[in-house]
Amino acid sequence: MRYLALAALLAAPLPALAQQNCGGGFPAFVEGLKAEAVERGTSPDTVESFFNGTRHDPAVIAADNKQGVFAVPFVEFARRLISENRMSRGMANRSDYAATLSEAEARFGVPPGILLAFWGFETDFGAVQGDFNTRNALVTLAHDCRRPELFRPQVFAALELYAQGDFDTATTGAWAGEIGQVQMLPGDILRNGVDGDGDGHVDLKGSAADALMSGAKALADRGWRAGEPWLQEVQVPEGIDWSKTGLDHPLPEQEWQAMGISARGGALSHPDLSAHLIAPQGRGGPTFLAYPNFSVLFEWNESFVYVATAAYFATRLSGAPIFDAGSPAPGLNQTQMTQLQQKLQAKGYDVGGVDGILGEMTRRAVRAEQVRLGKPADAWPTPDLLSAM
Protein backbone atom coordinates (compact mmCIF):
# COMPACT_ATOMS: atom_id res chain seq x y z
CA MET A 1 0.00 0.00 0.00
CA ARG A 2 2.89 2.32 0.53
CA TYR A 3 3.63 4.81 -2.27
CA LEU A 4 7.19 5.34 -1.13
CA ALA A 5 8.50 4.21 2.20
CA LEU A 6 10.21 6.35 4.80
CA ALA A 7 13.63 6.36 3.15
CA ALA A 8 16.75 6.81 5.22
CA LEU A 9 19.64 6.48 2.80
CA LEU A 10 22.91 5.44 4.40
CA ALA A 11 25.27 8.37 4.64
CA ALA A 12 28.55 6.53 4.09
CA PRO A 13 30.01 6.99 0.58
CA LEU A 14 29.98 3.86 -1.55
CA PRO A 15 33.23 2.37 -2.83
CA ALA A 16 33.95 2.46 -6.55
CA LEU A 17 32.55 -1.03 -7.04
CA ALA A 18 29.09 0.22 -6.12
CA GLN A 19 29.00 2.37 -9.22
CA GLN A 20 28.06 -0.83 -11.11
CA ASN A 21 24.69 0.09 -9.80
CA CYS A 22 21.98 -2.12 -11.21
CA GLY A 23 20.81 -4.41 -13.96
CA GLY A 24 22.59 -7.20 -15.77
CA GLY A 25 22.29 -10.85 -14.85
CA PHE A 26 20.82 -11.30 -11.39
CA PRO A 27 23.38 -13.88 -10.10
CA ALA A 28 26.25 -11.63 -11.21
CA PHE A 29 24.56 -8.67 -9.57
CA VAL A 30 24.33 -10.56 -6.27
CA GLU A 31 28.00 -11.49 -6.52
CA GLY A 32 28.77 -7.81 -6.93
CA LEU A 33 26.82 -7.02 -3.78
CA LYS A 34 28.75 -9.69 -1.90
CA ALA A 35 32.08 -8.30 -3.05
CA GLU A 36 31.09 -4.80 -2.02
CA ALA A 37 29.86 -5.99 1.35
CA VAL A 38 33.24 -7.60 2.06
CA GLU A 39 34.98 -4.44 0.86
CA ARG A 40 32.84 -2.50 3.31
CA GLY A 41 34.23 -4.61 6.13
CA THR A 42 31.65 -7.35 6.70
CA SER A 43 33.15 -10.79 7.24
CA PRO A 44 32.96 -13.11 4.22
CA ASP A 45 31.17 -15.77 6.28
CA THR A 46 28.48 -13.30 7.34
CA VAL A 47 28.10 -12.08 3.77
CA GLU A 48 27.73 -15.60 2.40
CA SER A 49 25.23 -16.49 5.10
CA PHE A 50 23.13 -13.38 4.46
CA PHE A 51 23.00 -13.71 0.67
CA ASN A 52 22.66 -17.51 0.55
CA GLY A 53 19.44 -18.37 -1.30
CA THR A 54 18.71 -14.83 -2.51
CA ARG A 55 16.39 -14.85 -5.49
CA HIS A 56 14.81 -12.33 -7.82
CA ASP A 57 11.14 -11.77 -6.98
CA PRO A 58 9.05 -10.66 -9.98
CA ALA A 59 6.03 -10.17 -7.70
CA VAL A 60 7.88 -7.25 -6.10
CA ILE A 61 8.23 -5.49 -9.46
CA ALA A 62 4.58 -6.20 -10.23
CA ALA A 63 3.53 -4.70 -6.89
CA ASP A 64 5.70 -1.66 -7.52
CA ASN A 65 3.82 -1.08 -10.77
CA LYS A 66 0.38 -1.32 -9.13
CA GLN A 67 -0.31 1.75 -7.05
CA GLY A 68 -3.64 2.85 -8.49
CA VAL A 69 -5.21 3.04 -5.02
CA PHE A 70 -3.64 6.48 -4.70
CA ALA A 71 -5.74 7.68 -7.63
CA VAL A 72 -8.86 7.44 -5.43
CA PRO A 73 -10.19 10.90 -4.34
CA PHE A 74 -9.65 11.99 -0.75
CA VAL A 75 -13.21 11.60 0.57
CA GLU A 76 -13.57 8.08 -0.83
CA PHE A 77 -10.04 7.14 0.21
CA ALA A 78 -10.63 8.37 3.77
CA ARG A 79 -13.93 6.51 4.04
CA ARG A 80 -12.28 3.31 2.85
CA LEU A 81 -9.40 3.51 5.30
CA ILE A 82 -11.12 4.96 8.35
CA SER A 83 -13.71 2.31 9.01
CA GLU A 84 -15.73 2.21 12.22
CA ASN A 85 -13.76 -0.89 13.21
CA ARG A 86 -10.38 0.77 12.62
CA MET A 87 -11.49 3.85 14.51
CA SER A 88 -12.63 1.82 17.52
CA ARG A 89 -9.47 -0.30 17.49
CA GLY A 90 -7.38 2.84 17.31
CA MET A 91 -9.06 4.23 20.40
CA ALA A 92 -8.68 0.90 22.19
CA ASN A 93 -4.98 0.81 21.37
CA ARG A 94 -4.65 4.36 22.60
CA SER A 95 -5.81 3.08 25.97
CA ASP A 96 -3.90 -0.22 25.89
CA TYR A 97 -0.58 1.45 24.96
CA ALA A 98 -1.09 4.66 26.87
CA ALA A 99 2.21 4.38 28.74
CA THR A 100 4.25 3.73 25.57
CA LEU A 101 2.50 6.50 23.64
CA SER A 102 3.02 8.92 26.51
CA GLU A 103 6.71 8.06 26.67
CA ALA A 104 7.04 8.45 22.91
CA GLU A 105 5.53 11.92 23.07
CA ALA A 106 7.67 12.91 26.05
CA ARG A 107 10.90 11.75 24.36
CA PHE A 108 10.25 12.65 20.74
CA GLY A 109 7.35 15.10 20.73
CA VAL A 110 5.10 13.01 18.47
CA PRO A 111 1.52 12.77 19.78
CA PRO A 112 -0.42 9.51 20.10
CA GLY A 113 -2.86 10.28 17.28
CA ILE A 114 -0.12 10.43 14.67
CA LEU A 115 1.51 7.17 15.75
CA LEU A 116 -1.82 5.38 15.98
CA ALA A 117 -2.85 6.61 12.54
CA PHE A 118 0.25 5.28 10.81
CA TRP A 119 0.20 2.08 12.84
CA GLY A 120 -3.40 1.54 11.76
CA PHE A 121 -2.89 2.40 8.10
CA GLU A 122 0.43 0.63 7.59
CA THR A 123 -0.38 -2.75 9.13
CA ASP A 124 -3.84 -2.57 10.71
CA PHE A 125 -2.16 -2.27 14.11
CA GLY A 126 0.33 -5.04 13.39
CA ALA A 127 -2.11 -7.58 11.97
CA VAL A 128 -1.06 -7.32 8.29
CA GLN A 129 2.67 -6.75 7.93
CA GLY A 130 3.24 -8.14 4.43
CA ASP A 131 4.42 -11.50 3.15
CA PHE A 132 7.23 -10.53 0.77
CA ASN A 133 10.65 -11.84 1.75
CA THR A 134 12.40 -8.63 2.75
CA ARG A 135 15.92 -9.56 1.66
CA ASN A 136 14.72 -10.74 -1.74
CA ALA A 137 12.56 -7.65 -2.18
CA LEU A 138 15.42 -5.26 -1.43
CA VAL A 139 17.88 -7.05 -3.71
CA THR A 140 15.27 -7.26 -6.48
CA LEU A 141 14.57 -3.52 -6.25
CA ALA A 142 18.28 -2.72 -6.05
CA HIS A 143 18.81 -4.76 -9.23
CA ASP A 144 15.95 -2.93 -10.96
CA CYS A 145 17.31 0.27 -12.51
CA ARG A 146 14.53 2.70 -11.59
CA ARG A 147 15.58 3.56 -8.01
CA PRO A 148 18.87 1.80 -7.21
CA GLU A 149 20.03 4.86 -5.26
CA LEU A 150 17.23 4.16 -2.79
CA PHE A 151 17.27 0.40 -2.51
CA ARG A 152 20.94 -0.58 -2.90
CA PRO A 153 21.92 1.09 0.41
CA GLN A 154 19.01 -0.68 2.06
CA VAL A 155 20.48 -4.07 1.15
CA PHE A 156 23.62 -3.22 3.09
CA ALA A 157 21.54 -1.84 5.95
CA ALA A 158 19.69 -5.16 6.16
CA LEU A 159 23.06 -6.93 6.13
CA GLU A 160 24.22 -4.77 9.04
CA LEU A 161 21.07 -5.58 11.01
CA TYR A 162 21.69 -9.26 10.23
CA ALA A 163 25.25 -9.02 11.55
CA GLN A 164 23.87 -7.44 14.74
CA GLY A 165 21.37 -10.25 15.25
CA ASP A 166 18.33 -8.09 14.55
CA PHE A 167 17.37 -9.44 11.10
CA ASP A 168 16.53 -12.91 9.87
CA THR A 169 16.84 -13.75 6.17
CA ALA A 170 13.34 -15.25 6.41
CA THR A 171 11.93 -11.88 7.51
CA THR A 172 8.84 -10.84 5.58
CA GLY A 173 7.25 -7.44 5.08
CA ALA A 174 6.00 -5.06 2.42
CA TRP A 175 6.96 -5.33 -1.23
CA ALA A 176 9.31 -2.33 -0.97
CA GLY A 177 11.35 -3.83 1.87
CA GLU A 178 9.69 -2.13 4.83
CA ILE A 179 9.61 -4.14 8.02
CA GLY A 180 7.35 -4.33 11.03
CA GLN A 181 4.24 -2.80 12.50
CA VAL A 182 4.95 0.73 11.27
CA GLN A 183 6.82 -0.40 8.13
CA MET A 184 10.34 1.01 8.22
CA LEU A 185 13.22 0.36 5.86
CA PRO A 186 16.37 -1.28 7.28
CA GLY A 187 18.44 1.91 7.01
CA ASP A 188 15.89 3.78 9.05
CA ILE A 189 15.79 1.01 11.64
CA LEU A 190 19.55 1.34 12.02
CA ARG A 191 19.23 5.08 12.44
CA ASN A 192 16.01 5.34 14.46
CA GLY A 193 15.25 1.92 15.90
CA VAL A 194 14.36 2.06 19.60
CA ASP A 195 14.18 -0.81 22.06
CA GLY A 196 10.86 0.24 23.50
CA ASP A 197 10.19 -2.85 25.61
CA GLY A 198 13.69 -3.10 27.10
CA ASP A 199 14.54 -6.62 25.92
CA GLY A 200 17.84 -5.60 24.33
CA HIS A 201 16.64 -5.89 20.71
CA VAL A 202 14.77 -3.72 18.23
CA ASP A 203 11.93 -5.91 16.98
CA LEU A 204 9.51 -3.91 14.87
CA LYS A 205 7.57 -7.01 13.86
CA GLY A 206 6.84 -8.53 17.24
CA SER A 207 6.95 -5.59 19.63
CA ALA A 208 4.38 -2.81 19.42
CA ALA A 209 6.42 -0.80 21.93
CA ASP A 210 9.52 -1.01 19.73
CA ALA A 211 7.49 -0.08 16.65
CA LEU A 212 5.77 2.93 18.21
CA MET A 213 8.90 4.33 19.82
CA SER A 214 10.90 3.84 16.62
CA GLY A 215 8.20 5.51 14.53
CA ALA A 216 8.21 8.47 16.89
CA LYS A 217 11.99 8.80 16.74
CA ALA A 218 11.92 8.57 12.94
CA LEU A 219 9.41 11.42 12.66
CA ALA A 220 11.37 13.53 15.14
CA ASP A 221 14.49 12.83 13.09
CA ARG A 222 12.66 14.18 10.03
CA GLY A 223 11.77 17.44 11.76
CA TRP A 224 8.55 16.88 13.72
CA ARG A 225 7.97 19.89 15.97
CA ALA A 226 6.74 19.03 19.46
CA GLY A 227 3.64 20.76 20.74
CA GLU A 228 2.48 21.98 17.34
CA PRO A 229 -0.62 20.88 15.37
CA TRP A 230 -0.47 19.18 11.99
CA LEU A 231 -3.95 19.55 10.47
CA GLN A 232 -7.25 21.23 11.34
CA GLU A 233 -10.48 21.24 9.41
CA VAL A 234 -11.72 24.74 8.61
CA GLN A 235 -14.65 26.56 7.04
CA VAL A 236 -13.89 28.81 4.10
CA PRO A 237 -15.97 31.87 3.17
CA GLU A 238 -17.27 32.62 -0.30
CA GLY A 239 -14.91 34.63 -2.45
CA ILE A 240 -11.64 33.29 -1.02
CA ASP A 241 -8.69 33.61 -3.39
CA TRP A 242 -8.12 29.94 -4.14
CA SER A 243 -4.80 30.68 -5.84
CA LYS A 244 -3.37 31.18 -2.35
CA THR A 245 -4.12 27.58 -1.42
CA GLY A 246 -1.82 24.58 -1.62
CA LEU A 247 1.44 23.51 -0.03
CA ASP A 248 3.47 26.22 -1.74
CA HIS A 249 1.54 29.18 -0.28
CA PRO A 250 2.06 29.36 3.50
CA LEU A 251 0.59 32.21 5.54
CA PRO A 252 0.40 32.81 9.30
CA GLU A 253 -2.77 31.35 10.75
CA GLN A 254 -3.94 34.83 11.77
CA GLU A 255 -3.83 35.96 8.13
CA TRP A 256 -6.10 33.09 7.14
CA GLN A 257 -8.44 34.12 9.94
CA ALA A 258 -8.42 37.67 8.64
CA MET A 259 -9.71 36.28 5.32
CA GLY A 260 -12.68 34.77 7.17
CA ILE A 261 -11.42 31.23 7.67
CA SER A 262 -12.58 29.62 10.92
CA ALA A 263 -12.18 26.29 12.62
CA ARG A 264 -14.86 23.67 12.14
CA GLY A 265 -14.99 22.39 15.70
CA GLY A 266 -12.55 23.74 18.22
CA ALA A 267 -10.64 26.95 17.59
CA LEU A 268 -7.67 28.27 15.67
CA SER A 269 -5.18 28.86 18.45
CA HIS A 270 -1.77 29.29 16.80
CA PRO A 271 -1.99 32.78 15.26
CA ASP A 272 1.69 33.12 14.41
CA LEU A 273 2.20 29.59 13.12
CA SER A 274 2.59 29.18 9.37
CA ALA A 275 -0.16 27.17 7.68
CA HIS A 276 -1.29 26.12 4.22
CA LEU A 277 -4.92 26.01 3.16
CA ILE A 278 -5.52 22.71 1.39
CA ALA A 279 -8.64 21.44 -0.36
CA PRO A 280 -7.99 17.79 -1.36
CA GLN A 281 -11.10 17.72 -3.58
CA GLY A 282 -11.34 21.37 -4.44
CA ARG A 283 -13.53 24.13 -3.11
CA GLY A 284 -16.62 21.93 -2.92
CA GLY A 285 -15.05 19.40 -0.54
CA PRO A 286 -13.42 19.38 2.90
CA THR A 287 -10.84 22.10 3.61
CA PHE A 288 -8.02 22.10 6.12
CA LEU A 289 -5.20 24.21 7.46
CA ALA A 290 -2.01 22.18 7.22
CA TYR A 291 0.82 23.20 9.54
CA PRO A 292 4.59 22.55 9.24
CA ASN A 293 4.27 19.13 10.87
CA PHE A 294 1.97 18.07 8.00
CA SER A 295 4.88 18.36 5.58
CA VAL A 296 7.01 16.06 7.77
CA LEU A 297 4.53 13.26 7.10
CA PHE A 298 5.61 13.18 3.44
CA GLU A 299 8.86 11.65 4.71
CA TRP A 300 6.74 8.62 5.64
CA ASN A 301 4.78 8.43 2.41
CA GLU A 302 4.93 10.60 -0.72
CA SER A 303 1.26 10.27 -1.69
CA PHE A 304 -0.73 13.45 -1.04
CA VAL A 305 -4.03 11.61 -0.57
CA TYR A 306 -2.41 9.12 1.82
CA VAL A 307 -0.73 11.79 3.94
CA ALA A 308 -3.87 13.95 4.04
CA THR A 309 -5.95 10.94 5.10
CA ALA A 310 -3.45 9.77 7.73
CA ALA A 311 -3.20 13.30 9.13
CA TYR A 312 -6.99 13.56 9.24
CA PHE A 313 -7.28 10.13 10.90
CA ALA A 314 -4.81 11.34 13.54
CA THR A 315 -7.06 14.32 14.27
CA ARG A 316 -10.06 11.99 14.63
CA LEU A 317 -8.13 9.81 17.08
CA SER A 318 -7.34 13.03 18.94
CA GLY A 319 -11.01 14.02 19.25
CA ALA A 320 -11.86 15.92 16.05
CA PRO A 321 -15.29 15.43 14.41
CA ILE A 322 -15.92 13.67 11.11
CA PHE A 323 -15.15 16.02 8.23
CA ASP A 324 -17.83 17.82 6.27
CA ALA A 325 -17.62 16.03 2.91
CA GLY A 326 -19.43 18.88 1.14
CA SER A 327 -20.28 18.43 -2.53
CA PRO A 328 -17.06 18.17 -4.53
CA ALA A 329 -17.25 18.67 -8.28
CA PRO A 330 -16.80 15.43 -10.25
CA GLY A 331 -13.13 14.69 -10.75
CA LEU A 332 -11.19 12.71 -13.35
CA ASN A 333 -10.75 8.98 -13.62
CA GLN A 334 -7.21 7.64 -13.90
CA THR A 335 -7.24 7.61 -17.70
CA GLN A 336 -8.42 11.21 -17.81
CA MET A 337 -5.86 12.19 -15.18
CA THR A 338 -3.14 10.67 -17.35
CA GLN A 339 -4.39 12.71 -20.31
CA LEU A 340 -4.39 15.85 -18.18
CA GLN A 341 -0.85 15.23 -17.00
CA GLN A 342 0.28 14.72 -20.59
CA LYS A 343 -1.32 18.01 -21.59
CA LEU A 344 0.20 19.83 -18.64
CA GLN A 345 3.59 18.36 -19.38
CA ALA A 346 3.31 19.44 -23.01
CA LYS A 347 2.70 22.98 -21.77
CA GLY A 348 5.95 22.88 -19.82
CA TYR A 349 4.64 22.03 -16.35
CA ASP A 350 6.53 19.58 -14.15
CA VAL A 351 3.91 17.10 -12.91
CA GLY A 352 6.42 14.72 -11.37
CA GLY A 353 5.74 11.99 -13.91
CA VAL A 354 2.68 10.85 -15.86
CA ASP A 355 1.08 8.22 -13.62
CA GLY A 356 -2.62 9.11 -13.51
CA ILE A 357 -2.34 10.10 -9.84
CA LEU A 358 -3.12 13.58 -8.54
CA GLY A 359 0.00 14.29 -6.51
CA GLU A 360 1.18 17.63 -5.19
CA MET A 361 3.20 18.53 -8.30
CA THR A 362 0.21 17.88 -10.55
CA ARG A 363 -1.93 19.97 -8.20
CA ARG A 364 0.46 22.89 -8.54
CA ALA A 365 0.34 22.63 -12.32
CA VAL A 366 -3.46 22.43 -12.28
CA ARG A 367 -3.66 25.52 -10.06
CA ALA A 368 -1.39 27.47 -12.41
CA GLU A 369 -3.47 26.44 -15.42
CA GLN A 370 -6.70 27.37 -13.63
CA VAL A 371 -5.25 30.82 -12.97
CA ARG A 372 -4.30 31.13 -16.65
CA LEU A 373 -7.80 30.17 -17.74
CA GLY A 374 -9.51 32.44 -15.21
CA LYS A 375 -11.05 29.57 -13.24
CA PRO A 376 -11.15 29.22 -9.43
CA ALA A 377 -7.64 27.97 -8.69
CA ASP A 378 -8.46 25.21 -6.19
CA ALA A 379 -6.11 22.62 -7.78
CA TRP A 380 -8.99 20.17 -8.33
CA PRO A 381 -9.01 19.01 -11.96
CA THR A 382 -12.40 18.44 -13.55
CA PRO A 383 -13.61 17.26 -16.95
CA ASP A 384 -14.35 20.92 -17.70
CA LEU A 385 -10.71 21.84 -17.12
CA LEU A 386 -9.53 18.92 -19.25
CA SER A 387 -11.82 20.09 -22.09
CA ALA A 388 -10.67 23.68 -21.75
CA MET A 389 -7.08 22.58 -22.29
UniProtKB/TrEMBL annotation:
Residues 26-314 form the Transglycosylase SLT domain. Residues 335-389 form the Peptidoglycan binding-like domain. This is Lytic murein transglycosylase. Keywords: Signal. The lineage of its organism: Bacteria, Pseudomonadati, Pseudomonadota, Alphaproteobacteria, Rhodobacterales. SUPFAM superfamilies: Lysozyme-like, PGBD-like. The keyword Signal applies. Residues 1-18 form the signal peptide.
